[in-house]
## 1
Amino acid sequence: MPCLESRYLPISDRLDLLVNDEDFADGEKVQASMQSYHELIKSFRLLDYSAIGTLEVPSALEFLYSKNSIDFAIETVLEAVDEVPLWVREWNLAKKAFSSRDAASALQHYKKSLEAAKYSAGPLFIVFYIEICAFCKHQYQELKNENEEHLFDRFYETLGGDASKYAILIGYAPRSSRDPKTLMPKSVAPNKSASLLYKIDSKMKMLS
């Protein structure tokens, strides 16, 4: 059970503590904290906030903790506004390039989209981040099958690394700490990591 001091933590951090609680079973405590979080946001009139016009986007909590919110159709974004944001345009071009099996072009468009998405994508960045991770993981598997995995660091590591750094910075992905016994890094929110990995692997299957 999280310590009493956790009540002084931001609600989003308390959710991570609750989800990581080994005794957690039915989700009632997480649901209660989510409700509290929603009420707080409503008080600031931010619950329906979208970085893309009036487009209604699920909250970051829903994207992170719901197994059903793995994807968000980019067509919804493209049809929502007259002037599509640069990061969405580049994201769409990346998806089209990848579907055409043009990985090199997809890589360049993902890079451009990532730079433009920072501080403007809102909760949709989680969907975008998951797709970037799935894309990088897919490309690593392709290179490995061709005995060329040594090329991964040269072409794809920067994209995945930059996306992860930003996701950690804004709290969408958990940071890691060093285990004092093994000196190896470990996630400070293992269940959150497991949820993201599930979504990434699910997305990768969709890309394959």
## 2
Amino acid sequence: MFIVVLVLIIILALLLVNFITDLLWFFEVGYQSVFLTRFITQIAIGIPMFVIVGALACFSLVSLKKSYYKRVANLGDDKIAAKSLKRTALLLSLAMGAVAAFASVPSWLELLKFTNSTGFGLADPLFNTDISFYVFQLGLIKQICTILYVIIIGFAVISVIYFMSLNSRNPETVAQVEEGNSGEQPQENPGCMPGGSGFGSMFDGLQRMFAGAPGQGMKKTAPPGTALKIINAAPVHTTVLGVLFFLTLAVSVFLWQYDLLHSTSGALYGAGYTDINVKLWMYKLLLIMAVLGAAGIIVAMKKKRPVLMLAVPAAMLAVGMLGAATGAVVQNFVVSADEINLESPYLARNIEFTQYAYNLNNVSVKTFPVNNNLTREDIEN
């Protein structure tokens, strides 16, 4: 504990030194408003994110504990184990809040760009979206998706850790009793009493989780493997995290289409023939599949067949590989054979919007007559 506190003190001291150094430098050059705007924005993002995500993590772990106890044999209360579990839940919640805060703070500039965006009055020819969307807004939306991925994966990790802590102190997850014997009650497992030796109990819990070995005196245990046991012990958590993951993936896939405007796969910079006629349609199909994946999670959990959850990801992987292969074939054997004709419309767009970018679209063209009366004296002057 002393070492942990010492490490935290050193980290905070280093952060404070860097903060004071930056502050003094910005004040010295007269740009303190720039520094304060950045600092205040980071605080306005980080603190609410820490509090909200930390509270949600704590609520999630408490719900996981209740869900777990509903599916295990009741061996009575153990105050020492209960305190340890509360402390574990609190530490995991604080860690999850800190991770979310650190993941979201770097988006301060994108947030300021988003809130202070102005229109360009010019739309791109492919999606008919104002250019300001790509300059001021798209970056923040992408970062929000990244933060959501971090939070979802973080919640999954702390759920696994907390489940391991529960499983090391409590009996095995009780599986469904075979039809016709539903009235029988599972027997107690004296070898998994919460008050057992620490290392032995933890090792026993890990062995049962990963190997799926049944506890002594139990009728049947959950399916082998940690993942299936967590799904069996926390179906609501699994459903929520799975649905959120696929919905976030759907948003990410939707945003992939905008990256085609910066594609370099063809002869020009920007969306070309292959991007529009192959990749764009592949992204639309993947978007639909991602939404179906969210619905598939709910169906799989209701039917108690978690293996079905892997069907949509496998199908998306297959579509992605097929789309990439198709794009390569079209680019190399169709476009390359008639590049001038197929890429001409997209090359014209490239030139047009390059002129807009450098403000060359309003250049005045004037004709000057050539007199051919230049003399040596004119050159010397």
## 3
Amino acid sequence: MILKLGSLYSGAIDAFAYAANVLGGGKYEVCWQVEKRYEAHKYLKQNYPNTKKHFNDDKVGKQNLERVDVICGGDPCQPSSTSGLRLGQADHRYRWPQMYRICGELRPNWIINENVAGSVSNLVLDQKISDLESIGYTCQAYNIPAISVGAHHERERIFLVANANAQGRRGLLCPDAQAIFEACKETITLGAQGNPFLQYQESMAEPALFPVADGLSDNIFRLGAAGDSIAAPIPIILLTCIYEIEKMIRNEREHNN
């Protein structure tokens, strides 16, 4: 069983596509990525050469995106970030309406949306849940900090998981999602004394500030791309849970037939 995945607001790293690749080609296929920054496409092409690429979220939809089982994406966080003005829906960088439109047109079985914790207090998360529920999705939001998967910094992030048919699948959902979460967590043992830069250097075997052979400006972009991304074990866990649920559902259907 292979689930198809589409990625919105992929960034240069695309942690969701990375997670799909870690889980292996026998579980997920990354079908397309949407990212507006041309600099990021340099890395997307390098790391995901066989995945279709698009630039503008308002130029894609059912007319040019393949229907997938899972759509993942973290819309820009600036409208909700506590380090900004927190204008929410009034911010010109607020892109949730485009993600909502794309999900409504393609109707994936699953949607994973990621954003900062500030999206709770400024009611952006409430708007997202209301929008998805209005078109038949059942939603659950989780606050999963990076520290919960072994990182040496807190970095709270809100992950909104939506399913197109959760009511009809109630009896088939995983009875112990916590067990799956714990089983998928990577054990990270580092002697970096809580320093995230040293932790990165130990785990990745390259300098935390990245080599500068390609020029300083590219180095700065790569630092920003790393800062924009999410802790990779989190999407690995979420996609593993979705895969296990889908496998249970399909096995049940085959048994009933």
## 4
Amino acid sequence: MNNETKKHSEGCPLEPVHKRLEDLHRQWHVAQNSYFDPEAFRMAIQTAIQTSRTVSFILQSNKRIIRDFDKWYGKWQDEFRSIPLMKWMVDARNKIEKQGDLETHSYIRAEVVASYFNEGPTVQVPAELFDAPLKLVKSIPDSQLGKHIRKDGVLRIQRRWIENTLPEFELLDAVAIAYGHLSRLLDDAHRQIGLPLPESRNVETGELYDSEAMQGRMPCMIGHGDLRSLDIWLADGTPVEFERIERKIGHEDQMAEGARLKDRYGLEPKDIFGQSGTAEGTLNQLFKAAQVMLERDGHHITILFHFRGSRLLEMSELRPAEHGQKYLMMRNVAHDLVRKGADTVIMIGEVWSAPYLPSQPYRRAVDAPERKELLVANLVRKAGEPIQLSARIVRTKGQATVEKTNVESGGAHFLFAPFYEAWGREIPPEWMEQEKSMRGGDNSG
């Protein structure tokens, strides 16, 4: 069991249902911890599937406390019948109890990650065929694309359990999604009774997660495949490593940081985050503050601001050591957005920019002799067009100066494709078309 829980009020009349859903959460973790032990995984995942079915049974046994139960529950039954996965869960439970074990098989999925899109070559084969990843690597073409993949690409190898009648889902993920639907059902039962909704929290930090954004799942059920993935640099065969440091800032820390900002930059916190109440207004204020900081310090770190509406949820600094790390890093950040319910992101940092050369489609701007340096702020959100602010950085005698700000609305922003995917937002087709044809026209990065 990890440090995340779904809390409900004491004395809740739906306590028996909560307990059974908590049992399902625990059993999910047993299956996760047994992933590389076939017999233990088989028993744990089948127990979880059986438990998932009893959640609704116990809810029905408490129907007397839910107003207009038959009408209310009938709508949920219709919804669940329309979801193929939930129908499969019912059928799977019946098979386990009446016929025997599910027909599960362990696979190795190997994919090449060399883009912000999920477009790289992929192979999924029985787990005993360990030479499949090597064959995948050997299939990389001897072309400019192939050179780019070998230089900046990552080979991701992941173990996956699949059931014969549900080939499109990994089994842990299938049960996690089913948990989410049942959690949504239980939340709505609280609404029907007039009770406060349960809250998903980190038991150690008290951090509140957004259950709606997570579609009822627990935070641990999002991005869980990363924990059983091995990422290897194609360039040298070494593992890709990340270090994540989290720091909780208390009131005294905030006061000290506010004093430092005023003393060093002449900025008040309200000058940085603005009070416009709009994402565009916050973007403008942050960019103005970034310009002041860059001219004072001579540089600006890459920083992400996560918002839910106009409320700041989190700030994080990104420090990719290699260009290829960005592909995985942005996927990891996308999982965080879903867990925390962030619907708006602003990213600010320095980038190199250079003209696109058709003869060198995978040339990075940092390697171009004619490159120029920019301070860039991007606003992307769950709904609405992306906005980019950019200003050229000119360095004279050791002093950095930021020139006039350019504003671009819309456009292709490949970097944020994982965010769109996490939000369930369609990635504009022109992004992929442009990326494939010319790697972004103005080759920035």
